[in-house]
Amino acid sequence: MFQSFYDTMISGDRWVLILQGLGVTVLIAICAILIGTVLGCIFALFKISSSKILRGIANFYTTVIRGIPLATQLMIFYFVVFAPLGLDRLFVAILAYGINSGAYCTEIFRAGIQGVDIGQTEAGRSLGLSKAQTLIKIVLPQAVKTALPTYTSEFIVLIKETSVASFIAVTDLTKAGDMIRNATYNAWIPLLTCAVIYLCLTLGLTKLFAILEKRLAKSDRH
């Protein structure tokens, strides 16, 4: 078994390909969740706005993005939307994943904001705070704590969904494993290696966010 692993992954420095693919996967996930967070905040505010136009824009965005498979979106962005611009495929992948994540973050943040008791808003307004001040100082801090578990799940799902980036020839972790499989005619070792790495990433993130949730819970008690 060890000899098979050595011949498949170590010989020819193929492990470097896995490491590079892991770097691409993490880069896409981090950049995409940052873009998604910004878009989510903006469109969540649109959704709770009193303006029908802003609500309509937000509803259209979330409905379309959440209703189309991510792999299809990725190919539409690369082969149709950004094709005339000749953008780098990795950059397109980051944008596509970010826009996709933004639709889910929108609903996560909207639910978090609307999950805060209306009495909190009324209390803020009675203290003389403006609507914006009440939202920023009172509602949002509580909404963040409410939305954190679901936001964690979105980040973890996003990491796993980066595996379809290979549809536009981005050499992510899954694509790296597939390249090694094609080169060595050994399927189980590179695929199992990728699976273990994905599992470690998701478990590590779950543990990290669990610690953050506990610290936020402690801050509430103090």
Termini separation: 54 Å
CATH architecture: Orthogonal Bundle
CATH topology: MetI-like fold
Rg of Cα set: 21 Å
Uncertain segments are none
Oligomer: single chain
* Strand runs, count: 0
CATH class: Mainly Alpha
Shape, principal axes of CA atoms: elongated
In round numbers, the mean pLDDT is: 87
Series of secondary-structure elements, N-terminal to C-terminal: HHHHHHHHH
If you had to describe this structure to a student in words, what would you say it looks like?
This protein has a single domain (2-221), classed as MetI-like (MetI-like fold), CATH 1.10.3720. It contains 9 helices and no strands. Helix 2 (14-47) packs across helix 5 (89-114), helix 5 packs across helix 7 (131-161) and helix 7 runs antiparallel to helix 9 (188-221). Helices cover 82% and strands 0% of the residues. The model has no long low-confidence stretch (mean pLDDT 87). It is elongated. By secondary structure, it is mainly α. The N and C termini lie far apart (54 Å).
Which secondary structure elements does this structure contain, and how are they paired or packed?
Layout (H helix, E strand, L loop, with lengths): L1 H9 L3 H34 L4 H16 L2 H12 L7 H26 L3 H9 L4 H31 L11 H12 L3 H34 L1
Helix pairs in contact: 2-3, 2-5, 2-8, 3-5, 4-5, 5-7, 6-7, 7-9, 8-9
List keywords for this structure.
222 residues, mainly alpha, MetI-like fold, 0% strand, 9 helices
